[in-house]
Amino acid sequence: MSDSEDEFPDRQLKLIVMGDGASGKTSLCMRYSQEQFSKEYGQTVGLDFYLKRINLLGGTNVALQVWDIGGQTLGGSMLDNYIFGAHGVLLVYDITNYSSFENLEDWFNAVKKVCGTGPMPHMALVGNKSDLEHMRTIKLDKHQKFAHDHNMSSYFVSAKTGESVALCFQKIAADILQVKLSKPEVDQHHRVVKAEIIDSNNSHGAKAKRVQLPPRQAKSSLCNIT
Ligand SMILES: Nc1nc2c(ncn2[C@@H]2O[C@H](COP(=O)(O)OP(=O)(O)OP(=O)(O)O)[C@@H](O)[C@H]2O)c(=O)[nH]1
Ligand SMILES: [Mg+2]
Prior knowledge:
The chain is of the alpha/beta class.
């Protein structure tokens, strides 16, 4: 990718990653942006913020802003601001933890409340920890029914092994932009270009910083796909 493409992406998308604490949101973001995984759990307070640039079929350069929202923010005063302006939402649960699945309804409703009568962002249901398939407590049909009933795309991923993580983010971006992924893109599940962490000081030891955006800054765009 050239410098000018770096500076001037064709599109910028805001993706937010939400779900219960310990479902693996930060791990997914770290896997996607840095190809790293840590067994240690460090609770996200507020949110972490990542930027990743990808290149979709047809040469569309996309800057993905990924907002990793702490599980403890549900019901808190900042959540609406974090959600506002999202093009896509990843609702993440842990396939071995039933309550993390049950609580998705509340996370979904938080998005619905912010969008009001306007269009919803692209919604994706993400079952994480697929490496722990033998400990799964949420049956496949429950997952599928939730995705169907809420008009969501559906994924199973593992932040630990990296299985389907890049593909998940890539497909969501492609769906939002109505671009088709090429076969090699789908086959490889590849990390297309470079990752860029724009903060520092993350609990997982990587360079990432928790930023708590003031409401006005967070409310920078409308809750629809432009
Ligand atoms: N086996 C396995 N463990 C995982 C996976 N993803 C995350 N974990 C572990 O689950 C724990 C919680 O992961 P985090 O990514 O910190 O969870 P979170 O959703 O960001 O939690 P909050 O910041 O509190 O909202 C950590 O100990 C991770 O190592 C996975 O795919 N497989
Ligand atoms: Mg976290």
